[in-house]
Amino acid sequence: MTEEQFEPKIVAFLCNWCSYRAADLAGTARIKYQPNVRMIRVMCSGRVDPAFVLKALALGADGVMIAGCHPGECHYMVQNYKAMRRFAMLKHTLDKFGVENDRVRLQWASAAEGLQLATAINEMIDQVRELGPLNWSARWSENGQIEAAIQSLIVEHAEAMEVPA
Amino acid sequence: MSEKVGVYICHCGSNIAGVVDVEEVAKWAGENIENVTVSRDYKFMCSSLGQALIEDDIKNEGLTRVVVGACSPHLHEKTFRRACSNAGLNPYLCQMASLREQVSWVVEDKQAATAKAKAMISGAVRRVQLQEELEPTEVPVNPATLIVGAGIAGIQAALELADGGYPVYLVEREPSIGGHMAQFDKTFPTLDCAACILTPRMSEVGAHTNITMMTYSEVEELTGFVGSFHARIKKKARFVNEEACTGCGICIEKCPKKVIDDVFEVGMGMRKSIYRSFPQAVPNTPVIDTESCIYFERGKCKACELFCPTNAIDFEQKDTYLDLDVGNVILATGYDLFDVKKMPQYGYGRLANVFTSLEFERMCNASGPTDGKIVLRDGVTEPESVAIVHCVGSRDENHNKYCSSICCMSALKFGHLVMEKTGAEVHSCYIDMRTNQKGYEEFYQRLLGEGMHFIRGKVADVTDAARIKEEEGKLIVQVEDTLLGKQRRIPVDMVILMAALEPRYDARDVGLKFGISCSMEGWFTERHPKLDPVATMTDGIFIAGAAQGPKDIPATVVQGAAASARVQGMISSGMVKIEPVVATIDEERCSGCRICNNLCPFNAIEFLAEKEVSFINTVLCKGCGTCVAACPAQAISGAHYSNAQIFAEIEGLLYDVYSSNGHKTAQPEIESVPA
Questions:
Q1: Any CB–CB contact under 8 A between B504 and chain A?
Q2: B255 and B213 belong to one structural domain
């Protein structure tokens, strides 16, 4: 064996009704996936505050997955759509902060989709392993990137809010 | 004061211990995680001895928090919460880590599994210390029940509840109760006539003092929660006064306008503009169809009014709305049939003598459009040969992947009826013959004995393009007989398409109205496919019959009865506990921005105009937490899933990463990160 392989840490937020049950099913069906993922149960993907994702990345996670019920199948009717909208904004913001898009993933997994969830987890772990360690908090202090990113987001926001004459 | 946390690692026999080094995890937790006072591993934590371990430690060691690393919380959370509660600890101060489903069963490498288990225990220990005591709220259960859909499932449920002495509101969209079963002729495998067994039940419903029947009505809106729902029912105008009408039928006789009946007779027969679906309809009050009625078209006629002996016709009648208070709801809304025109290769609509299964069902029925005679579309010629095509729209990647479960048996029944009534040859083209209930296989054997032909193969197409003389004037069924390994062309006079059962076209809207979810296909989702088949994820809403998935009459009746049994259980216990996992708003912090107001699909959030803050009705709140995540002022907190608890869990899960990152051990606190 040569150099030790980089093993990423992924934090996954699973909704109680579909995705957590998908994880249960993956277990019951003995579907193997890589051990790099650590899961947190929330009642709904709509509960996932973008701050949770930022927190996880800041604490050293190399990627974050949010998993919920398929659109139209949310236990709370439509709350996964809210997760979806937030996710789009989150991804955009993270991009500005130099976090690659592949480090965050929104995954739909119904309670019957243990295999699909396991496959998605494996896929994501492989992608993040490819990207290497994020080391986000260390990067902050290194350069002025963060200030620049915040500035550009502020400008973008102001432009978006401008009402055309 | 710091908490005293007890950590319990379950071996689950060898299920966990076979992969995770459980002794090591328990020892590590006891030595390395702050505030862990007791840390043990045990063969079976869910056993009474395992539970006693927790109870004793709470009593003797003064534990204030409990973490159990075992199976998924969906299995045994209740067990361990009960153990805590037995020992006097609030059950919401217990947290589980799913070391079996998320670690030992899915990770092969033992070292990695043990490391992952440690992280999960660390997350749970961090989190549990911030958990708060919660008490479920209790609300009384209204003994009245709303049943939506009066097919055989709804009828069964209504009768069981009404016989038990509880009031029932039975709402049906069509003018009569009875559902699909009323359209059928015979029922498999016993061949007793559907009407003979159904109509006594229907009249029982009509006469029952505990049942309030509302036909030609729909549920407009459902609000409230388990135990006390409020339903708004729209009663569509019949233009016939139900109290005055005796059901004599003179109006129907005198009505000059005839139209095609494409609901009950599926386009095979005619009805008048004032009509009842079928002779034994319950209630027997007719309905005026305003779209075809001459009076509504031209303002003249009123033949029905003229001849009605009791002056029951009322052209001025308007839709009325009724408000009901009920404790529980049973949805028994049934199914639709697959539109066979979506498979043009079978020629329905183009080739006259291709029939759908329901059309054929009406044809066999003695009170149907042909008086029970099996004839071609011309209405006189008896077929000499008939082909039955199975799995039309089911078990088909292009349409529905699932098996419609009843069609094999219906096809056998059709075969029997054709042979009995006409002596024609019957060819059944099937993919697999599925006869797996009591008496079904025997029925199949009987048909084999009666000389029905079985061809194993999916029909490619049905055509009238003859290639040889024998095929001229016939319908030719092209099928590969997979048992013979040969292509066959079977010339027949009549083709019956066994159409798939599909969810109601508006099932998703109905699901939204009642707050329950649908599967990918649109069937209502049950709480558990095996152990809780008639309950849904929404407390107080039950499902029965084919609305949950394709099923035959016996299975439908069983579900109707099961749903009513569940409801009776709720009613007799009198009170129902509501999960305390809900969101609340801190008025001091709320800026009244109203961002949360539109986020709640359960209308639990209202804006208090006089205080200029939002307020959450905790009984309506289902605890999803979407508003918690959205509040820019962090004024909303979600019980049992607070920001602080989740942040702590993230820290715990990543304990090995961020401590090596040079971070200090972060104190669990709410941090303001722009959302």
A1: no
A2: no
In a domain, A1, yes or no: no
pLDDT in tens, B282-301: 999 999 999 999 999 999 99
Q: What is the DSSP letter of B548?
A: S
* A4 in a structural domain: no
Q: Does A80 touch chain B (CB under 8 A)?
A: no
Pairing of strands B475-481, B459-463: antiparallel
* A20 contacts chain B (CB < 8 A): yes
Chain A CB within 8 Å of residue B484 CB = no
Same domain, B394 and B456: yes
Q: In degrees rounded to 5, what are phi and psi of residue A125?
A: -60, -40
Contact A86 B537 (CB under 8 A): no
Would residue B295 count as lying in a domain? yes
Segment B344-364 shows an average pLDDT of 96
Q: How far apart are CA A133 and CA A101, in angstroms?
A: 14
In this structure, the answer to whether residues B490 and B343 fall within a common structural domain is yes
**ipTM, 2 decimals?**
0.92
Has residue A28 been placed in a domain?
Answer: yes
Tell me the C-alpha distance between B514 and B226, whole Å.
11
- Nearest CB to A79 within list B74, B518, B626: B626
Helix, strand and coil percent figures for chain B, each rounded to 5: 30, 25, 45
Domain enclosing residue B609, as ranges: 583-638
Q: What is the DSSP letter of B100?
A: I
- Give the CATH number for residue A55: 3.40.50
Element (H, E) at B430: strand B425-430
How many domains are contained in chain B? 5
